Amino acid sequence: MRKIYALFLSLLISGFALAQQSPDEFLGYKAGERFTPHHRVVDYFEHLASTLPNVQIKYYGESVEHRPLFVAIVSSAENIQNLDQIRTDNLKRTGMLEGSPSTKVAINWMQYNVHGNEAVATEAAMMTFWEVANPNNSEAKEWLKNQVLIVDPCANPDGKDRYTVWYNQKANKILQPDPQSTEHSEPWPGGRPNHYMMDLNRDWAWQTQAETEQRIKLYHEWMPHLFVDYHEQGINEPFYFAPAAKPVHEQVSPFQHEFQEIYGRNTAAKFDANNWQYFTRERFDLLYPSYGDTYPMYNGAIGMTIEKGGSGRAGLGMLNALGDTVTLEERIIHQHTAGISAVEVTSKNAERLAEEFTNYFKSNSTNPRAKYKSFVIKGEGQPDRLAALLKLLDKNKISYGFAGNRSGLRGLDYNTGKSASFSTTDKDIIVNAYQPKSVLTQVLFEPEATLEDSITYDITSWALPYAYGLQAYALETKLDAAKSFEKSAFEVNIVEGTPLAYIAPWNATKHAKYLGALLKAGIRARVAEYPFEINGQSYNAGTLLIMRNGNQWVADYDKKVVDLANKFEIKLTTSNTSYVDKGKDFGSSDVKVIKAPNVAVVGGSGTSSLNFGEIWYFFEQELDYPVTILEADMLGRYDLSKYDVLILPSGNYLNGGNFTKVMDWVKAGGKAIAIEGSVGMFSDKEGFNLSRFDTEEEKKAQQKADAEIQKIERLSSFQDRERMGISTSAAGAIFEVKMDQTHPLSFGVGENYYTLKNNGRRYAYLTNGVNVGTIQSLDQYRFGFIGNKLKPQMNQSMVYGMEYQGRGKIVYLVDNPMFRSFWEAGKLIMANAIFIVQ
Question: So what CATH class is 599-836?
Fold first, then answer.
């Protein structure tokens, strides 16, 4: 009987082992023959989880278009049984949980396809996961004894399926590598971004997008030791892997440097054995904190980017500049090999990875390495802006506390860029670097990153006080909080009687949300264009007035006004008189009714998909206000008279009849809002006041200077030309912009706004328009890289302005006020342009 039972058990186990299928077997085609839709990727990993006891699936959310977001986890049977202990032990290493860890298992997280049209990554993810999980792979069993492998096969399923569906429609039956074939020319906006055209690989720290926010929550549950992010680059490039290029942030630890070298050597040996070309230490740096390699780096992991030549344009196969066909199969194998290398080196160095991870958090939280150790954020007068910043800190697990009443402090004043004395109150916040998230705190608050090399892959300044429009100080010493932060419960508005007017503030994004909700509810709101005092309180220009007069037909008027204010946690005050103590009475013509605008935004070919996405996201996910999307190449067919506001994202797409049509609409009373590159469509044209230069002499002088630069560049060595080119570029330079507080475009923003300059565009002051935001002196430069040839041109330039055309107007936003949706302070400028400027 025992022999029969043993035979039965053996057959059962054998049958169980045979049930697992490779990706080729499960999908019914070989890797590289086609792109796999996301739902089939989900099916495959579900198949492995259902047939392998050491594989788990963890769903962590869904994309905007409701596709599942998940990771697959594989390790040894023993580790899987002890998985939660391994996870919590690791959090103890960071100090985010109390206690001492009892395990030393390395955690290796590999992320694929964060850029949707770099779709080779998901195919490689399936191949790599299968090789590691395959129960018949004896080598993989050794790898899994001391590591947990977490694989996110597709971090951007909406972008991936946008690309996959399009490509499968366009691909030829017979491989067509001709670069001119339609399958090698993605239409706007391409598959790279997510649903809202956002670049998820630049959203890690800011977490503006649903996919990122959900992923970071899971990330914080694990805090991996290694994080590998898989990408593709141009068709004519070979393969890139770590070590990274300079500049590398000074906070990257010696061991993080060393492990990148260990990984690079191991991967190079595999590529050399196959005669595959690659490069390291070029192009892909470690500075900007919101990448899939830097964010893990600043959280103690070894963050690494992988880049294979090909990208969305390559499809199933395309000729490169050498005439060689770069195939999907080749790209998959190369990324798969880089992935297996990461698994190998993690296993070989598992114990040390855990030890160094522990040391990273212990040393940094007790002895921060950067210049500034503590940061004070002033809370007086801007509670809603401060609340928005604290929400971001919470997402990043950065701790903070109340400052208390202190005097005699000294630190760098972000507003002036100089050292200054200051005091604190019990409304101010202290964030110091003596905490588990020490490095991330220092990086996000640092006024300026130290640059080893000025040639960078992204922006060089991102300091949170500037982004949120808050007064703050950076201290070189430790300053502990006086007491722990406790969020006070919002004191809901309870209004008795029937006030003549409700008064609401206007200085933060949430106030624009409130206004949008009022207008959608059919409630008439007004804006005070002058400061005023009433009932002993002072109010700034831009304050919202919701008056009974004009809303008497609205059912449940008082309840709707108050309920919406409570929803957004906005404190209302009331008045039973229109007679003010100072300023303009509520019946004045300078207290303007805000019309609920019909808004359209131009998208499509010629427009920046990223800037379009920022605008689209702002309306749908932040304002929750309706917007119509118009295709740029179809403007001639639309009836523009239906719209009050037309938003023109960055780009160059208005010409000929379309330009004339838009200008006829403006002159008839429309309001156009031009952002960044689209501002140039109105520059130096007859009938427009916008110009790069004040005088013809200035224009000739600049042309002469440009010619000199070009001459120097021509005489420079070939290798120096890229470095010469950055002398006329900006990469996230922060300038103080003087705002005309009397103009509606600046309401609520404050006297000084800090812009993030990412372009070299310069415009002279408007002579017949309104210069709302200006750089009047180079003393207004604060931090971040700007080329030495470009910087002088910013002197006496217009950044935000408005020009009248007929009965309408054009609002010029030379710098993008909503960059990547994380530059919070600029969103109020955009809201003013949409709702308040009349």
Answer: alpha beta
- Are the CB atoms for 794 and 737 separated by under 8 Å? no
CB 112 within 8 A of CB 124: yes
Note the pLDDT of residue 627: 98
CA distance 416 to 795: 17
Longest CA span, the chain? 104
Q: What's 607's DSSP letter?
A: B
The mean pLDDT value of the chain amounts to 94
In angstroms, rounded to a whole number, what is the distance separating the alpha carbons of residues 136 and 134? 5
E strand residue ranges, 414-567: 418-424, 429-432, 472-475, 483-484, 501-504, 525-528, 532-534, 537-539, 544-547
Please say if the pLDDT value at position 710 is more than 90. Answer: no
Q: Label residue 492 left, alpha or beta by phi (over 0 means left) and psi (-120 to 50 means alpha).
A: beta
Residue type, 585: D
CA distances from 290 to 203, 399, 648, 818 (A): 6, 19, 27, 16
Residue type, 156: N
State residue 717's pLDDT score.
52
Which superfamily, per CATH, for 2-364? Zn peptidases (3.40.630.10)
Tell me phi and psi for residue 91, to 5 degrees.
Answer: -65, -30
d(CA 163, CA 128): 22
Q: What is d(CA 601, CA 417) in angstroms, rounded to the nearest whole number?
A: 37
The confidence score (pLDDT) of residue 724 equals 55
Helix (H) or strand (E) run with residue 512 in it: helix 509-520
Angle of helix 328-348 relative to helix 254-273, nearest 10 degrees?
A: 130
pLDDT 10s digits, 25-66: 999 999 999 999 999 999 999 999 999 999 999 999 999 999
User: What residues does each domain of the chain span?
Assistant: 2-364, 374-386+401-484, 501-594, 599-836
Query: Can you say whether residue 417 is alpha, beta or left, with left for phi > 0 and alpha for psi between -120 and 50 degrees?
Result: left
Which of 349, 312, 355 shows the shortest CA–CA distance to 331? Answer: 312
Which residues make Cβ contacts (< 8 Å) with residue 704, sequence separation at least 6?
Answer: none
* Model pTM score: 0.94
Which residue, 308, 242, 327, is CA-closest to 281? 242
The token duo for 556 is 């449940």
Residue 781: how many other CB atoms lie within 10 Å: 18
User: Distance between alpha carbon 713 and the CA centroid of its chain, in Å?
Assistant: 34
